[in-house]
Amino acid sequence: MASDSVKENIKPTIPLKLLVDDKKTRVLAAEASSDFVDLLSFLTLPLGTVVRVTDSQLGSIGCMNNLYQSIQQLSTDIFSTEASKSILLNPRNPHADVFKNRKLNIDDSSNGKYYLCPKCAKRSHYPNARCCRGLANIEKFKEFRHADGFVKSGMMFVITDDLRVLPASPSSLLQLLRGLGFVDVSRIEYISIMLV
């Protein structure tokens, strides 16, 4: 059991190698593994989840936070069902269950719970959602299945400072450096870091 508690204390890390212009002290690009590129799974998040997650962690996204907070403050009585408010504030990513076991998971919308209607057995991610014959209110849990990432494991990528993702190869790196106007590669320094 001690090994379980040790595993809980270990945070996932993703190694990055930064290409830095040592004269201008600017990051030109990063070299990263498929684990980093799989962070692009945030593109599958519904907008409501993005606003909720960024509000609590990073700050605001323009007026989207105002919109989200105004929906939070509305009385449940004005919605057509109890589940309607929850659907707006906590939209579900249809891929959340599949990617629950990724190295870094920023989508907290899936806990494996779903609800069944006792009359017609339709599923809902939200309690008391109305269906054709009643309310989905029988709580069930499903197990998460392991899924591969979006890109093949073991692949390496170059991420540019303007967030373009390229396969890591000498030709793509050379093309990137040429595009940035570099002729003197001795100015480029590699710095290895770990994202936690």
From TrEMBL:
Q: Which domain of life is it from?
A: Eukaryota
Q: Which Pfam families match?
A: DUF674
InterPro entries per record = DUF674
- Designated name of the protein: DUF674 domain-containing protein
Give the originating organism. Answer: Olea europaea subsp. europaea
